[in-house]
Amino acid sequence: MTAIPLRTPVLAAPGDRSFWLQDIGAKPVTKPLEGAHRTDIAIVGGGYTGLWTALRLRALAPERSVTVLEAGTCGCGASGRNGGQVHSWYAEIDALTSVVGIEEAQRLCAATAEAIEELAELQASGTIDMDLRLRGWLWTASSTAQEGAWDSAVEMTEKCATNTFRPLSAEEILQRTGSPASYLGVSEERAGSLQPAKLALGLRDLAISRGVKIHEGSVVRNIVPGSPCELQTGIGTLTADTLVLATNAWLSCIPELHRHMFTVQSQVIATEPTGLFLDRLGLQEGVAVCDSQRQVIYYQRDRNGRLIFGHGSGRICYNDAFGAEFNRSKEGGRDNREELKRLYPDLRDTRITHDWAGPIDCTPDHVPACGSLTGHRNIIFGLGLNGTGIAQAPVVARILASMALGRSDEWSRSRLVGLAQRRTLPPEPIRYIGARIVRAAIRRRNAAEIRNRQPNPLVRYLSDLVPGREQQS
């Protein structure tokens, strides 16, 4: 049977890795796959989705063997370089509803709230020290164009009889963030922030302790479909009855999936420790903050007094063939630095010690998709966490685990499963050219709106062509 080639990930150089990974000296603790091996269920990808799926599988079917293959160190992808913000899916309940309907959307949102409690229990029990601090997630506006970005989510959660969001005054936002830039918003109080690399490596160690075999430094080059299928790494092969693909943006190399996803670059910076100064400003440790720009900014103060500041750059590449250039901003995080100065003018001279970047996988409707490859029911995939995955990956993992075990339950029957009704993107070069035009328009629109100016009608029209925007307008 014809092999399915996978794209070889270009791992970040040591100095380009995220602050989170560098801070804890993240490195492999398991050996690469070498020689011929056999497993019941194989998982490609050692990030949040892959590791949570492995843990779910061991809990549901401890008699099944599970093996995870990771190209680098577990968590070296998006799981170890994100902004560390923890919040439920209630903020996206409108997008979820458009795909799965209100009843399931409410159930999925509730499941992410339960996942946050699961994280809290892992922390409290000493199982995983992830620096979890549930001190609130603030969804704010710092310009008139951003006001009310949360209205749909608030209205829908109120109809579902949940009290997820609480209105914030300008005074409270200033009190909790230390910045006068944002003056309106809502908060999800049972939310907050953590150290994402600590969580990823903690999940790795927990999975190993529960009988999951993990091989880091194992780049899967080809999948030979069949029953069973075979994974080839160059120096080893793994035969599996069922395969779960959980490789984030790297799934874009499979044409069938590429039609339903696109990859954008996210950029993050970290300042030098400046805790005493942040104390004077009033930025509370552990509070997670974001604004409502089309290219959202998000930040938190870590336990060591650093400000971790992220920004969705919207940068794309032709045919999603991203490489080493996606691992670090060309401009050294310039956009992040400018936004940091806007929010915190008093930090303009603070030294930036780390800047990093990387690809994230998105779907046109900004909702994850699960399923199996056409003609290969035993090759399962999960994609499209859209940069929001800490509380969401544990839920997607329930779907993937149920599918991998051939179960018929509320998870395998989720309307997140299947691509037939999901939106597609145009082929190249149309999608690349279009994305470049839309990105340029979004940047111009952001630049105008953040200063409370009106962008011209053409810029407004083009910026609204971004996938999923019509659901949010």
Q: Enumerate the spans where pLDDT stays under 50 for 5 or more consecutive residues.
A: none
Q: In percent, how much strand structure appears in the residues? A: 15-25%
Helical stretch count?
14
Share in helix: 25-40%
In round numbers, the mean pLDDT is 96
Our Rg estimate from Cα atoms comes to 21 Å
What structural class do the secondary elements suggest?
alpha+beta
State the major sheet.
9 strands, mixed
Euclidean distance between termini CA atoms:
46 Å
Number of strands: 19
What general outline do the C-alpha atoms trace? globular
In short:
This protein is α+β, with helices and mostly antiparallel strands. 30% of the residues lie in helices and 22% in strands.
What does it look like?
By secondary structure, the chain is an alpha+beta fold. It is 30% helix and 22% strand. α3 crosses α4 (102-124) and α12 (430-449) crosses α13. The protein starts with a strand and ends with a helix.
Give descriptors for this structure:
alpha+beta, nine-stranded mixed sheet, 14 helices, 473 residues
Task: Explain the layout of strands and helices.
Elements: E1 4-5, H1 19-23, E2 35-44, H2 48-60, E3 66-69, E4 85-86, H3 93-100, H4 102-124, E5 137-141, H5 151-159, E6 165-168, H6 170-177, E7 184-188, E8 192-193, H7 196-209, E9 213-215, E10 222-224, E11 229-232, E12 236-245, H8 255-258, E13 262-271, H9 275-281, E14 288-290, E15 297-301, E16 307-315, H10 334-343, E17 352-362, E18 369-373, E19 376-383, H11 393-404, H12 430-449, H13 457-463, H14 469-472
Parallel strand pairs: 2-3, 2-12, 3-9, 5-14, 12-19
Antiparallel strand pairs: 1-10, 4-8, 5-7, 6-7, 10-11, 11-12, 13-16, 13-17, 14-15, 15-16, 18-19
Helix pairs in contact: 2-7, 2-11, 3-4, 12-13
